[in-house]
Amino acid sequence: MKALLVRDLALALRAGGGFGLGLAFFLIVTVLVPLGVGPQAELLSRIAPGILWLGALLACLLSLDRLLALDWEDGTLDLLATSPLPLEAALSIKALAHWITTGLPLVLTAPVLAILLNLPGPGFFWLVLSLALGTPALSVIGTFGAALTVGVKRGGLLMSLLVLPLYVPTLIFGAEVARRGAVGMETQTPALMLAGITLGVIAVMPFASAAALRVNLR
Amino acid sequence: MTLTNEKPAPKRPSSFWSYANPVKFLALSERVLPTLWVLAATSLVVGLVWGFFFTPDDFRQGSTVKIIYLHVPSAMMAINIWVMMLVTSLIWIIRRHHVSALAAKAAAPIGVVMTIIALVTGALWGQPMWGTWWAWDPRLTSFLILFLFYLGYIALWAAIEDPDTAADLTAVLCLVGSVFAVLSRYAVNFWNQGLHQGASLSLDKEENVADVFYFPLLVAIAGFVLLFLALVLYRTGTEIRLRRAKALLAREARS
Fold it and tell me: What's the farthest any 2 CA atoms get from each other in chain A?
């Protein structure tokens, strides 16, 4: 399991793995929003939590394509499926590797980008917390989408159609935590809901992903 | 997979599962369909005409209230069709009856149309009543998300060549999607309290609309259910025949 994690991380960090792409995308979304809606500081600080959450979500989605497709092409997935490691565990590790290379950097850079969007002071802590709680769920759900569409040629667009509706609850609660935190409202309820969704998804989704992948490997 | 070489049905004609045999299914649906079409057409015409022309205008909403005879039944069907797809997907996963998977495939486009009808009639009704075509209200939003789920489901069916793989993957998507559809419903509720009115129909008689509206509405709902049944049987039959034709063509190409 450790070997698989190390391998996936190493592959993602080297050229062609697309490690920085998600971050660059996140930055670009953040830069484009003020250009689109106008630079009024007041307006920006009001929509900042939602925009940052959306940017993180899209950056996550963008990198899902590489999660399984490359391993599918060179046959690594067949080896993984026949190895003694259960496929559920292998997919959880792959989701973890995806989170470390995409979700974690997003969490760490979000405060910097939040300055650009004029996020109110108390919002920073809640933004980072909500992203830290929510992005693992995005990776795990995304793994399911990737497992569903891995056999489809040019499945990227199809995958976003399948995955985005599944992201709805995470997005709602995540952005709600950040938004309420920014205006100093009570955040406990949405934060607990968000944590609940993430934990539930981590517990159950690998089984669905593995089932989908087994069908595709058949 | 060739449906034409299916083993003969087990000698238990009383069992519900014997209709999982495509031959038996087709025979039965062909016998039932004409009646079903007639019943669906009659109850739709009766329900809609009764509702549109022979009910009084509502004292607050005027004649716009009459759109409920389209809005409420189509909204009910949009949800129920997804539930039906969930059940048939489960049957496919557990018992691997091809007819079941094909019924789910056949039902999805009908579900999309029902969702669109519900959204459009809702917008037409909402414009004069709420002064807006669209509001980010929990019910409306979750319907839009349901619409996206339908689209994804159909797109996944269309994207995969092998019919058994497609059936398996869409069944898994349907299961996961159902869980997330319920989750989204509650999430959306939490996110925004809206202005949609309460349920028009429920088992609790106190909450229902007045009797004058209630009976034509029931007839219209029955019409929608019958129409859906007829359509889904018809489309499933088409899917079975399409698959048969494919199997025959493949056999011809081999010889």
Answer: 57
Indicate whether B224 pLDDT > 50. yes
Are B173 and A215 within 8 A, CB to CB? no
Residue B102 near residue B243 (C-beta atoms within 8 A)? yes
User: Residues, chain A, total?
Assistant: 218
The residue with tokens 């089932």 is: A211
Numbered residues of chain B with Cβ closer than 8 Å to any chain A Cβ? 145, 148-149, 151-152, 155-156, 159-160, 165, 168-169, 172-173, 175-177, 180, 183-184, 186-188, 190-191
What region does A134 belong to: left with phi over 0, alpha with psi -120 to 50, or beta? alpha
CB A200 within 8 A of CB A81: no
Contact by Cβ (8 Å): B137, A123: no
pTM over 0.80: yes
Q: Give CA–CA dist B147/B145, Å, rounded.
A: 5
Q: Which residues contact A115 (CB under 8 A, 6 or more apart)?
A: none
What is the helix (H) or strand (E) element at residue B213, kind and residue range?
A: helix B211-254
The domain ranges of chain A are: 2-217
First to last CA, chain A: 23
Q: Which residues are CB-neighbours of B13 under 8 A, at least 6 positions away?
A: none
Of the candidates B51, B170, B187, which has an alpha carbon nearest to the alpha carbon of residue B104? B170
Which alpha helices (H) appear in chain A, and where do they start and end?
Answer: 2-13, 19-37, 41-63, 65-73, 76-82, 87-98, 104-116, 123-149, 156-182, 188-217
Distance, in Å, from the CA atom of B224 to the CA atom of B241, rounded to the nearest integer, reads 26
- If one counts every other C-beta atom within 10 angstroms of the C-beta of residue B86, the result is 18
Q: How far is A193 from chain B (nearest CA, A)?
A: 9
Sketch out chain B's domains with CATH numbers.
27-254 (1.20.120)
State the nearest Cα–Cα gap between A204 and chain B, in angstroms: 10
Closest CA to B68 of B219, B170, B192: B219
Which residues in chain B touch residue A150, judged by CB atoms under 8 angstroms apart? none
Tens of pLDDT along B67-121? 888 888 999 999 999 999 999 999 999 988 888 999 999 999 999 999 999 999 9
Paired tokens of B237 = 């039959």
Instruction: Write the ipTM.
Output: 0.88
Burial of A202 (0-12, 13-18, 19+ CB in 10 A): middle
Could you tell me which of B119, B168, B117, B110 has the C-alpha nearest to residue B145?
B119
